[in-house]
């Protein structure tokens, strides 16, 4: 097992300015009277808030996000090898901080709970003077924190959140998402499923019984049914059910030949392991080989399912085995620092930090409305996903989507997924009105 | 019909786990009068015995291969498990059977953990209010799980069953169903039988040995037994150790069904309390009965036919049953008067 | 109930009021003086005060009080959405619904005692939580939590001609925004005076006063009698159930108020507020501070919230800073050790704290204070041994 080596000296330099030390808290005034917007940085540093799960089921994912954030801060301040700054199409960032200010950061624990995440984000805004909040590992938390940032008047750069609502029904002007969503997963995955399993299939859904699960189930249903699949049943399972056997046994004799697991995290690990245990992966139904699909794959979590993921199809935002220059640069710089490759959560968090910094640099300000205007409609390349655009209408990034499959013969613990297809961006784009909601005006907090 | 049969099977193996955890919990309640919020953590520790055994057996020799590099430019690591390097095919087989082996390790480890816990902490709390017991054991549970997290991380760690037990058993044929209609994973059946064996073992121990007789007498009336000049304290230490072993065994064998993570104890904690109370405080048969009953009812509540009539019933069924039973039978299914009522 | 108060109680109330109003001065030096955390101190203080009226006095250990907190939150947000952004109707309905829910659940649960009672309350709360998270999503908005919307009707506001424009509205008390903060710098420290906090603070003091009156009243005495020996009570022909139920409903209303205030200071209501861990938290707060004491629950609430928000925020960079006066090797060693207990390890510290306090201070933090005070007064040559209120609290253990 590899050990995490944190370069303490580098870290020290990076956070020194955020010095909310044990002995001397609140040593600087975060909001001067003359401030034109919330937490306008007045000193020679700008503080970002990294709000990730550090306890609870997603703690490992949160730890990986934090690693990526620290790496991004190093690169922004001109330390390390610069990572994706060298491949990023915008050349505004020179490794000299942002707008002439050194980047500092504060961290907090979301506990994967909306209340705790909002409390932690509020601390960063009210006490530490953070001008941007980013992170998170679930949609409920992302939407809750996004709402808070809108009320407080700071920018929110979403971490891992896959629900449509983040940039759909619950979108906010101050919130931006780089990660993809269930709609794109459905559009990208369905054609690949058809190519591999044919158009005459009967699908059985097991769906985590909360907003993200329903959103995922709806998207997959919509796109697979367009291709001629039939949905036999869609069963809701309680969050954190642990043992899913009572939901899996009805699949056995239901006549379905595809099982779609709309689960994430531990639910996904458990339901997939148990479905394989019940022989579903090797079963034959209607003269066809039974198939299991996990629409949202996370390499980090998939490790928990062990051999069960072999041959299972799914989609992912990014994977470290991609061979474009941006991905290679990021994997190299992350791997050299920590000794293992980054997860998709780490990637999206790193990108969000770079994108935010770049927008501030281009806007020449940290004012949320100015930064937002710089991000809206911004087209870029070189961050590992090919040409990408931050759509102005809903603050959602549009880019290619990866369809992946569990590898049959992994060469290492990290080499679990292989990229089957890169679905081009045009195929996953949808009109912004489709998901409803309204951005509303920017809030600068002053 | 085959549907219902399958759900009964699901309920039995789930109920097996519930019963085992509740059994240990109710032994501690009944004999020591202690509300042990660290019992879920003991279940988790048992599961991590399996993780540790697998990690130990699967230790790898790491050699650096300078001719190949990783994506981030360091030399590729070639890993080979020592067991395989030294013992070849036999070594591989040993690693494959790590979960059953871990049961052998879990017994002494959990016995030591249990005894240490009782001697070092719990015994000072016999006379303290239940609220204090809850606070201290809850604190202990948090400490234990954080220690496990710092060693093994927060993600679930897969523990496959031995290959020989990974298949399905088709016993519908024996009952006159078509082949393939009533099939069930072998490991889950093994788990069910295992839980029956452990439950049987505990009952036999308490019913048939002198030691067990004293403990049962202690459960009924601790003071009198003490007055008879019997050193009840030492026996109670062993009893706590046994309860820890039962929880640990339940956890170790459950790992192929549920990939263990550091938080799994908390998930089972509330449930096991409900099981114990539904069974009736201080009643061992009650705990076992309630474990299987709740397991089976939970399975039935999850059937589509039931959910169509009562949406969301599978979310609350356990608690609903608890409420109904406690209102109909004041002391649970088989509870005795006066135990933990104040 | 007579309206006279003994001198010590008056002093305690005045002291409490001063501390609560001066909170930004007191807590800023330890990094806890920012509005959100102060609000949390006050809100969870109210929650724990109410819980203590049930648990501290009657000994009935409820494991489901978070349900009333959640009900209060949902009610308040719905009041914001449908009626008005004014917090008064919000907390009125939050208290009302908190009371109604606790009356129903309390009536059923109080038919059993001891652990059976605990499990009944737990079961009801878990049912509320699970349903709110999934099936009841139309009312609760499930995982995402209930939030305000620009297009909410807000009948009363519309009738009064208040228009919030395109932006999301903020709850306001007759024109005072609940999120407005006045800042001032004193001795190099930025002090933040937040209107939302002072709104909560006034209610906290009110709740503290009510709780004090209940403790000293014949009704409070009756509740204590329920705890000390229920059997004897019923032999005297007295039915204790109505007293216990009244205590249960009062504590449910406190919880509803706390939930409502959470929505007032931050208009979002999520299902996880009702989870058993949240119910467990208030139990821990009360025991940690000292069950049955007046002040203990508030202190316990403060300690737990402080750990959750401040200890979790220390990362290695901040630790390096804190130990920067030490030689480098020692600095690194200390950072490695300390980082096990802060940041992502804050749970470990909390767990260890629970154990230490309950092992060494069976009466919670309040017992610690009392011991210190008796120690001091003994050193001073034996003055009075503590205030009357403390003796009373000791008797309630």
From TrEMBL, chain A:
Taxonomy, superkingdom: Bacteria
Domain Leucine-binding protein: 45-407
Signal sequence coordinates: none
A GO BP annotation: amino acid transport
UniProt xrefs under InterPro entries: BCAA_transport (IPR051010), Leu-bd (IPR028081), Peripla_BP_I (IPR028082), TAT_signal (IPR006311), TAT_signal_bac_arc (IPR019546)
Protein family membership: Belongs to the leucine-binding protein family.
Protein's name according to its UniProt entry: Branched-chain amino acid ABC transporter substrate-binding protein
Source organism of this protein record: Rhodobium orientis
Lineage of origin: Bacteria, Pseudomonadati, Pseudomonadota, Alphaproteobacteria, Hyphomicrobiales
UniProtKB/TrEMBL annotation, chain B:
PANTHER family reported in the protein's UniProt record: ABC TRANSPORTER ATP-BINDING PROTEIN (PTHR11795:SF442), BRANCHED-CHAIN AMINO ACID TRANSPORT SYSTEM PERMEASE PROTEIN LIVH (PTHR11795)
GO biological process: amino acid transport
Signal peptide coordinates: none
Molecular function (Gene Ontology), one example: transmembrane transporter activity
One Pfam family cited in the UniProt record for this chain: BPD_transp_2
Similarity comment: Belongs to the binding-protein-dependent transport system permease family. LivHM subfamily.
UniProt key word Ion transport: no
Name under which the protein is recorded: Branched-chain amino acid ABC transporter permease
From TrEMBL, chain C:
Protein name: Branched-chain amino acid ABC transporter permease
Annotated signal peptide: none
Compartments in which it is found: Cell membrane
Record's bilayer topology term: Multi-pass membrane protein
Domain of life, source organism: Bacteria
GO molecular function, one term: branched-chain amino acid transmembrane transporter activity
Keyword flag Magnesium: no
CDD domains from the UniProt entry: TM_PBP1_LivM_like
Lineage, uppermost ranks: Bacteria, Pseudomonadati, Pseudomonadota, Alphaproteobacteria, Hyphomicrobiales
UniProt keyword Transmembrane present: yes
Annotated TM spans: 12-34, 41-68, 88-108, 115-136, 196-215, 242-262, 282-304, 348-369
Protein species of origin: Rhodobium orientis
Principal subcellular localisation of the protein: membrane
Keyword annotations of the record: Cell membrane, Membrane, Transmembrane, Transmembrane helix
A GO-annotated cellular component: plasma membrane
